[in-house]
């Protein structure tokens, strides 16, 4: 059981965790007919915000005060499905920004005002998984508010998912798109092929690049230099010299653009993905 220290609304209260640090918990109707000092059933809680920065706390409190709890519940459904089906944990900040975005989108949608997403093509092809969850989220909005949103809205939701998935600010999204686009372009021009962006092999390549970019930008210290990469790299060089040479082109681009030196294991995985894309294309 949780003791209430402050009531924010019927679905949100302030309390303390086991370390006696302030936390904010959300749950459908958890504060209904309750007062400060009362206990609430922990089984009713669907989201806990643990200690966070002052800026994030203010944003969360503002969102709670100004937003219908139904938007928090829809956000939670999206987050829960990603966790259960894809084992993806989104950072808490995206839960707040996604909730606010959904509320704003519905208000616009009720007036027939829909925004165009300039990254629609990139999202559908480079982040197809996140885009598919964006489409699913539109069904939730349709069922709740009877509004038919265009695919562009699925793209906006996908951007929030991507930002939460990678733990970065939404502003980093375009940078990751530019990175994937540039690397894909190197492969296209090197082999002079038209890539099937809907293929499984390309989807895996895009996912690899997505997480490679995150590691390159934010997690360089935890790189694994791979004790097996040297021998496997020799096999790749001998069996598929073209894919290996293309991987080296990408290596040079990344070193020049991002001042990041790829290790053998990273070159190896690039070559493997490139080989699969090219093989599928030739078939």
Automatic annotation (TrEMBL):
The keyword Repeat applies. The keyword Repeat applies. Signal peptide: none annotated. Keywords: Repeat. InterPro entries: BglG_antiterminators, CAT_RNA-bd_dom, CAT_RNA-bd_dom_sf, PRD, PRD_sf. It comes from the Bacteria. Transmembrane segments: none annotated. Residues 66-171, 172-283 form the PRD domain. Pfam families: CAT_RBD, PRD. PANTHER family: CRYPTIC BETA-GLUCOSIDE BGL OPERON ANTITERMINATOR. This is Beta-glucoside operon transcriptional antiterminator.
